[in-house]
Amino acid sequence: MIRCNQLLHFRSHHYRYDEHGRTQTKQTIGATQHYHYDAEHRLSEVRIEQTGRSQRYGYVYDALGRRIEKHQIDREGKPYNRTRFLWDGLRMIQETGPNHPTSLYIYIDQNSYEPLARIDTDGNHEQHIRYFHTDLNGCPEELTDANGKILWECSFQLWGKRIHEIEHEPIEQNLRYQGQYLDRETGLHYNTFRYYDPDIGRFTQPDPIGLLGGLNLYQYAPNGLTWIDPLGLSCITSSNLYASGNKTKPRDPRIDGYNLKPGQKPDLYLDKNGLIIPNQGGASAFKTPEQLPLTGNYHKLPEGTSLPNDIAVKYDGSDVGGKMSPGHATIYPTKAMEPEKFIELFNSLPWEHVGKK
């Protein structure tokens, strides 16, 4: 049941919200979580009530809204079991806690949130390099040592909920979707400016940037496999995309009954009202220039692009189990619209002319 995009019931989970639209309680079988927020709408404390016991956890942020500490709270209100975090801009690069070594995180490049490796420093000041092996969306699936031995592995449902987690060695791995950190005490993922609940594939708080992030203020992304939202603000493309065209721009999507020429195959179709049928077909793009089927000029849509409302991207190549050629992606409308509107949205994307094939 959904009212104002606020999910109240899903399977064994029950939710209540406060006057600001923030999740106030989450009730599951055997436990109830109570969420408390500060004046900036940041989660500051969680109280977990189970039969016969109650636990409290606190969260601390810096002036830029980045979480720098999490801890448990004893009966006298004093913090203990602190885990502290260091940041480089809006990327978490180090954590230090009582039950695990100091971990330094390295990402695949300076603009990415996809982890490449972590360097653990133990109590004897010895350093150990661990390597991440990630899914298409950058979510870690395995952690190995320098010799390739699997130390940790985990499988996930589409929206990030754990299916099966194995620690082959006593090592904890909490990175999830790009920009997310698992809080094992609550099961929530800290997502920089919000918290994400993998049980329902939604955020626990409405989008801080309001409707600029989309009409659904709690939505993570159109799908969890090919989209990412490392800051908890708006979803972005998870890889570069390339499309053929002329020197000025990519080729316009071909729409049957609108701009289709004889002998051409349509990308999209119109309904009886002259509107594009949504979620069926779209403009083709590829993950690498080499995969483009045509020669000539081509353009790049950079990784991390935030798409406007009403259009989305899906990766549907055979390399990810789809029916299209390897590396294929489709840029498509998510609602019925005039052909001119979709072409305008498509051309408004920040395409960059890269070269000629």
Task: Describe the structure in your own words.
- The chain folds into two domains: 235 residues, no CATH class; 118 residues, no CATH class.
- Helix content is 3%, strand content 41%.
- The protein contains one helix and 29 strands.
- The strands form six sheets. Strands 3-4-5-6-7-8-9-10-11-12-13-14-15-16-17 form a 15-stranded antiparallel beta sheet, with no helix packed on it. Strands 18-19-20-21 form a four-stranded antiparallel beta sheet, with no helix packed on it. A three-stranded antiparallel beta sheet has the order 24-26-29, with no helix packed on it.
- The chain is globular and about 75 Å long.
What is the rounded Rg?
Answer: 23 Å
From N to C, what is the helix and strand string? Answer: EEEEEEEEEEEEEEEEEEEEEEEEEEEEHE
Strand content: 35-45%
What is the number of independent domains? 2
Distance between the termini: 51 Å
What order do the strands of the largest sheet run in, or round the barrel if closed? 3-4-5-6-7-8-9-10-11-12-13-14-15-16-17
> What class do helices, strands and sheet pairing give?
mainly beta
Indicate the percent of residues in helices.
under 10%
Question: How many individual helices?
Answer: 1
Low-confidence stretches: none
Summarize model confidence as the mean pLDDT: 91
Major sheet description:
15 strands, antiparallel
E-strand count: 29
Overall shape: it is globular
